[in-house]
Model the fold of this input.
Amino acid sequence: MRISPSVYLVGGSQEGLTYGPDGHIYLVKGSDGIFLIDAGNGYDVDGLKHNVEEEGFNFSDITHLLITHHHTDHARGAKEIKDRTGCKVWISNNTGKHLLEKGTDEELGIPYAKAHGMYAQDYVYIHCPVDRGIDDGEIFTIAGVSITAINVIGHSYDSLCFLMNLDGLKCLFNGDTVQYGGVIGLINYPMCSIADYHIGLPKLKDLGVDALFPGHGVLTIKNGQAAIDAAIKQLDSIFMPHSVGQTISSTL
Ligand SMILES: [Fe+2]
Done:
């Protein structure tokens, strides 16, 4: 599904593009190649490949897979995509690299998810080698596109937002950090914390985002900053006497 000349939605179970459950999987076309943002659960990589090819691209031409965070609906498919395309997989250095490569079930919160009916009892997370960990504030170029990575803790320690200019628009691919309408990704799950959101979300202030490409739900190519600002405003209205936040674990 073409969103703009350089951005395509090629996976996601909400749109029926892939079965999963998958978060949105975006393809970005740069001046020098193509790359994906997020991988989905990996149950329907054939469907993902079909969608990529329907848009006129070769699946094997995908050079990089950027992961917004380690959660299953964004990252579990990374291994199969990497195996089938040979692409490089990049994810946050802040716990994400460890979790995707070799996180234990306990670290991944899988027993908790199974106990609360979020995952089937036979669910298995699929680990994937990571070619590069990304640090907060890093700027790098993929396929001719300059990308700034912003680590926004709150939804998870490793949540990364990818900021880039495409088609004259300032675009933010923000995973589960913020959704359209200013909804934050606060869930009852390990590593998700409203105290951390108080620390992380203000990093998205005053970015002048045009296109907001979240991991779920509605996306927009106009005034995406409004959704971010609404989320920050709502967060500010929540009294936090000690917004200390979780200490980012150096052991993960
Ligand atoms: Fe998530």
